[in-house]
Amino acid sequence: MKPLNSPTKDTLYRHLGGYDVIAAVIDEFLSRFGSDPELARFGGGRSLDSRQRTRQLIVDQVCSLAGGPCVYTGRDMKSSHAGLGITETEWQANLRHAAGALEEYGVAPREREEFLAIFQRYKDDIVEKT
Predict the structure, then answer these.
(1) Is residue 5 part of a domain?
(2) Nearest alpha-carbon partner for 75 in 125, 129, 3
(3) Percent of all residues in the chain with a pLDDT value above 70, rounded to a whole number
(4) Number of domains making up the chain
(5) Beta-carbon neighbour count of residue 36 at 10 Å?
(6) Predicted confidence band of residue 67 (pLDDT cuts 50, 70, 90)
(7) How confident is the model at residue 14 (pLDDT cuts 50, 70, 90)?
(8) DSSP assignment of the chain, as one string?
(9) Cβ pair 84, 125 in contact under 8 A
(10) pTM of the full predicted structure?
(11) Using CA atoms, how far apart are residues 23 and 62, in angstroms rounded to an integer?
(12) Poorest-pLDDT segment among 2-11, 24-33, 80-89, 118-127
């Protein structure tokens, strides 16, 4: 019998190379995101501990959604982003940074698309309608 949350061979998690690759891509994404002046308002006033917790939550969420053995313990995306006033322009910058991080790590186009689709599924919960 397979253990609970055991990733199968056909998951995005496996195709990407597992946890370490996902964590490295998220680290690169956050580095790009954090150095973008358009997105600077999202990093201010947060302790190192808060930034590290956010990073771990993102890694766990992507790992889980990609079919990996991780468990996401954070809030839903609507609650997490409510009141931030995230715009379409900021959303597009977010996607550019995620795509750039995937390219940096040599993620193949098919897996890159699947990875970005994980982000896209939450767009309506994150971007505020104007």
Answers:
(1) no
(2) 125
(3) 93
(4) 1
(5) 16
(6) very high
(7) very high
(8) -PPTTPPPTTSHHHHHTSHHHHHHHHHHHHHHHHT-GGGGGGTTT--HHHHHHHHHHHHHHHHHHTT-S----S--HHHHHTTS---HHHHHHHHHHHHHHHHHTT--HHHHHHHHHHHHTTHHHHSPP-
(9) no
(10) 0.89
(11) 9
(12) 2-11
Residues 18-46: pLDDT tens digits? 999 999 999 999 999 999 999 999 887 88
| Within a domain: 47 | yes
The tokens for 20 are 């370490």
114 falls within a domain? yes
pLDDT of residue 122: 96
The dihedrals phi and psi of 3, each to the nearest 5 degrees, come to -65, 155
Report yes or no on 3 lying in a domain.
no
Q: Look at the block and give the residue holding tokens 């982003």.
A: 81
Which residues form the domain of 96? 13-126
Burial of 102 (0-12, 13-18, 19+ CB in 10 A): buried
We report the CATH number of the domain holding residue 65 as 1.10.490.10
